[in-house]
Amino acid sequence: MTYPNQLNCVDPVLNIDLHCHSTFSDGLLAPAQVAARAKANGVDVWALTDHDEVSGIAEAREAARELDLQFVAGVEISITWAGETVHIVGLQIDETNPQLVLGLDSTRSGREQRAREMADQLAMVGIPDAFDGALNFVGNPDLISRTHFARYLIEIGECRDVPDVFSKYLIEGRPGFVPHRWATLQQAVQWIRGAGGVAVVAHPGRYDFTDMQLGVFLDEFIAYGGSAIEVMTGSHTVDQYDTYARLANRYGLRASRGSDFHGPGESRVDLGALPPLPPSVTPVWADWKL
Ligand code: AMP
Ligand code: MN
Ligand code: MN
Ligand code: MN
User: Fold this and answer.
1) Is residue 289 part of a domain?
2) How far apart are CA 234 and CA 167, in angstroms?
């Protein structure tokens, strides 16, 4: 991949994708299949970042090694901040770190009970059996998520596609939404840093924050030791690429790039298929040995 519109730029730019999911959380492909797809799409450096789960990393690392694809161990931690769910990506983690493993364990617990309550709500609006229906799509019984309910709602013809689901169901004020308390911002950043990793704010454009709230959030994130933010992500519009590149520079944060790929036919952006980071930002991988 080369920078567009830079005719003098002869150095190849590495295609680096630092955010995606496998069947160990709510992705549709096993880690080895994700690795193969990343390689086929021309990705040079790849991170698997399953939600609140690191059990897929061993398989991912081995598959990447066989494909001669540089691998970065990652995770995407769900947190609650000011009543909002926010995601914090950890990169370059030691996935065997006991504090991280225990912390993620505690974050995952409660998902089954929440899922049963989600199914009860759906039953009340005439959609029975959603718990078992969603469970059919689950690869990791510890990690039943809204995505699995979304797939069930599509399967039974209740919704057209994933965006349709998340406009009618599973969101605040709609059937199937059950508020949940995830980890705290401080815990997530500490677990990631304690495991030797870099903490990154995932898809900042997706949160319902005012500019002031986002500022308070980033100040706290930085105070706990967070150091990067996603700029190029499958969740951002072209305008948001620019908005968050500026924000990264204003806060002295490094910038990350990740598709947030969940599966073929489901995710808008495929592995490796984002524009490169704008030259104005410092990449999160600036001091990695690549
Ligand atoms: P959970 O962790 O169970 O709350 O589920 C969150 C997951 O649902 C995210 O990781 C996404 O994969 C998916 N999701 C949430 N909101 C949306 C949305 N608006 N569009 C598509 N997928 C979404
Ligand atoms: Mn997801
Ligand atoms: Mn996310
Ligand atoms: Mn994600």
Assistant:
1) no
2) 18
Asked whether the beta carbons of 16 and 8 are under 8 A apart, the reply is: no
24 in the same domain as 105: yes
Is 186 found in the same domain as 100?
A: yes
> Which domain range does residue 149 map to?
111-168
Mean pLDDT score, 149-176: 98
pLDDT digit string (tens) for 73-103?
A: 999 999 999 999 999 999 999 999 999 999 9
Amino acid at 82: A
Please give the distance, rounded to the nearest whole angstrom, from the Cα atom of residue 247 to the centre of ligand 2: 24
**pLDDT one-digit tens code per residue, 51-79:** 999 999 999 999 999 999 999 999 999 99
Across the chain, the runs of DSSP E, i.e. the strands, are 16-17, 45-48, 70-81, 84-91, 198-201, 228-233, 254-258
**143 and 253 fall within a common domain:** no
- What CATH code is carried by the domain that includes residue 150? 1.10.150.650
- Its pTM stands at 0.96
Q: Which atom of ligand 1 is nearest to the CA of 87?
A: 10
Rounded Cα distance, 13 and 44, in Å: 10
User: Which protein residue has the closest C-alpha to ligand 1 atom 14?
Assistant: 147
Best probe residue, ligand 1, of 108, 146, 168, 181 (max atoms within 8 Å of C-beta): 146
- What is the residue with the minimal CA distance to atom 5 of ligand 1? 146
**For residue 10, what pLDDT band results from cuts at 50, 70 and 90?**
very low
Mean pLDDT of 14-42: 98
Asked if 193 and 238 sit in the same domain, the reply is yes
